[in-house]
Design brief:
six-stranded parallel beta sheet, 17 strands, binds zinc ion, alpha/beta, binds adenosine-5'-diphosphate, about 600 residues, about 50% helix
Length: about 600
């Protein structure tokens, strides 16, 4: 691991990319590919996949061809590389004939380190011909799971990429993806003829993401409080299930001073593109979106992902929350979850058109997610375990930071179940709670429920506590919403033992908002001295101006993390500045004087 080639790789990592050390398996992968080997790289989002081909591209002679399915992102990636002084270009349908010619000429002349190409473009006879006349360093196939016909992102053109191996057997290939499951992996190997490739599998943990799942009370107000207290002025994504809720939530946040924009498939294309573009390019935009928003989001400084509705599965949850904190800096995955979510998701499964098999799988997936929501143990351990990875309590999720109290809810569960039974299994939680708490509403008198012996039997618990009980009963499978009967709660087979007193039930105590314990521990966990807030503001304003002038996203100039380091360290000269993460030689030369000026001011 200490060959001259490795030393050269490290030196380029420092001088070009401004990073002090390799992350995880990067060094090994770079060494392997730079040495001419094929590789399949499985790394989570934000793991640092790009470097795995960008560095070999610089280490090997010739041009690296990067196959990427997302045209919109190529431009930003190339812009970011150019900032580093790397000779990069892209070739896709947005270029006109003259630009294409110029690009092909540069490729033939060996004037490019990296060329990003859309897969359909690469397969054109003219392009393949041009490749035979050029010197090729390697092929990088990004988002390699696009070859999988079973995945969501299937791209037929990806199937043809095996041609590369047949036409250019001597050129090493590296395929990269953040999709972890074994079937997809096997399919990538088979379809891209990567049988001899070395497979690098990283842990799928995202240690900088803090997972928090709160009891849903007034979700919007909870969200606003979360944004104001933890993420004022940060970029974030808020996921909702329906288009209507997206529109309403975005408007409501906006009226409360959050720079929120909606995004869903029902908007016209131009408005949608505009909002995505602003999110990608401006600082501190919050996009409220349906899951239609995701693929094609490559913003490294998304500081939080919030869910106002429960996703369908842990896979979905992990993919969506994975869009936070790609830059490695602290980020939050926050979700508000309540009984209504359980009812809603079950209804969607019950009413889906899918086969019996499909429903069975959907129910199992939902149950796994509910298990995550209700666990009193570490959320991360649960998540990673779902993906087949063993781990220890993380110290960076809500349950690790503040262990939830477990209480013996057997009595409460029996009362709740018998309220359901006595009222004929025809009512939802709201009415059942009124019965238990002994409230005389119109509905109660209409049905004469004040005569039942369960009436007022649960006055010892408040409404929130009862909501909690019903939610957990549904999540644990003791009750089931009946969608034919407007979501009335019904007893399940499993509830019988509880009613008979044969089965104990434990539940999580509702977590009330205690002090800011969680927040404090985060500040303590940071390895940086406290940043100078005023300086950070000025640095951000400077970055915004630079980004606008050059027509690139702000993070292409500098990442948040770099600005935060400058504001904390207050470097006094170019040397000190160059030692910070994210400042390579080229950026130091170009922006160093301006930055030092800002620090001095
Ligand atoms: P992926 O493609 O796997 O989602 P990226 O390649 O976009 O991840 O990298 C994620 C972030 O991590 C980027 O902001 C990148 O600058 C940063 N990064 C990658 N490697 C390193 C490293 N060795 N040291 C510090 N930061 C790194
Ligand atoms: Zn944890």
């Amino acid at each position: 691991m200490n060959s001259p080639a490795d030393a050269r790789a490290l030196q380029l990592l420092n001088s070009v990319f401004g990073h002090a050390v390799f992350r995880g398996a990067q060094a090994e992968i770079v060494g392997h590919v730079a040495g001419g080997g094929d590789a399949l790289v499985l790394m989570p989002t934000g793991g640092g996949k790009s470097l795995c081909y960008q560095l070999p591209a610089l280490l090997r002679e010739g041009t690296a061809l990067v196959v990427s399915p997302l045209i919109a992102l190529m431009q930003d990636q190339v812009a970011a590389l150019k900032q580093l002084g790397v000779r990069a270009a892209f070739l896709n349908s947005t270029l006109d004939g003259r630009e294409v010619n110029a690009c092909e000429r540069a490729l033939r002349n060996g004037d490019l380190d990296l060329l990003y190409v859309a897969p359909e473009r690469l397969m054109m006879p003219r392009m393949l011909e041009c490749l035979t006349e050029s010197r090729l360093a390697l092929f990088a196939i990004d988002e390699a799971h696009c070859v999988s016909q079973w995945g969501h992102d299937f791209r037929p053109e990806y199937l043809q990429l095996s041609v590369l191996h047949e036409r250019f057997p001597a050129v090493p290939r590296i395929a990269l993806t953040a999709t972890a499951d074994p079937q997809t992996r096997e399919e990538i190997v088979r379809r891209l003829a990567l049988d001899d490739a070395r497979v690098f599998i990283s842990s799928f943990d995202r240690p900088n993401i803090r997972y928090t799942i709160v009891d849903k009370q007034d979700a919007r107000a909870q969200l606003l409080r979360f944004i104001r207290e933890e993420h004022d002025g940060d970029a974030g994504i808020v996921y909702c299930l329906s288009r209507k809720k997206v529109d309403e939530t975005a408007a409501w946040l906006k009226s409360h001073g959050v720079r929120a924009l909606p995004y869903h498939a029902g908007m016209d294309t131009a408005a949608r593109a505009e909002n995505q573009n602003r999110f990608q390019r401006e600082d501190g935009i919050v996009v409220v979106a349906t899951i239609a928003f995701g693929m094609g989001i490559d913003k490294p400084d998304v500081r939080f992902v919030a869910h106002l509705d429960l996703p369908k599965s842990i896979e979905g949850y992990y993919q969506e929350t994975g869009r936070a904190g790609r830059d490695g800096a602290p980020a939050d995955a926050w979700m508000a979850y309540g009984l209504g979510d359980v009812v809603q998701q079950r209804r969607m499964i019950d009413q889906s058109e899918g086969s019996e098999d499909y429903r069975r799988v959907s129910v199992a997936k939902l149950d796994a997610l509910l298990g995550l929501c209700e666990t009193a143990g570490c959320r991360r351990v649960r998540l990673l375990d779902y993906f087949g990875e063993a781990s220890a309590a993380c110290g960076n999720c809500d349950t690790c930071l503040e262990a939830p109290q477990i209480w013996d809810a057997t009595e409460a569960a029996r009362k709740a179940l018998s309220a359901i039974y006595r009222t004929g299994q025809r009512f939802g939680a709201v009415h059942l709670i009124d019965v238990l708490r002994g409230r005389t509403t119109d509905r109660i008198t209409q049905w004469e429920h004040q005569r039942l012996n369960v009436f007022g039997l649960g006055a010892d618990l408040d409404e929130a506590a009862w909501r909690n009980v019903f939610r957990q009963l549904a999540a644990l499978g003791y009750v089931r919403p009946d969608h034919e009967a407007y979501g009335a709660l019904k007893l399940t087979e499993a509830s019988r033992a509880v009613l008979k007193g044969e089965q104990r039930v434990e539940m999580r105590q509702a977590v009330t908002r205690k002090g800011r314990a969680a927040k404090k521990s985060r500040a303590a966990a940071s390895d940086l001295p406290a940043a100078d807030g005023g300086l950070l503001e000025r640095l951000k304003a400077w970055r915004t101006a630079q980004a606008r002038e050059q027509g690139v996203p702000a993070y292409v100039i500098f990442h948040d993390r770099t600005l935060a380091e400058i504001a904390a360290v207050r470097p006094g000269d170019m040397d000190a500045l160059g030692g910070l993460s994210g400042i390579g030689a080229k950026k130091l030369e170009r922006y160093g004087p301006a930055l030092l000026e800002l620090v001095r001011a």
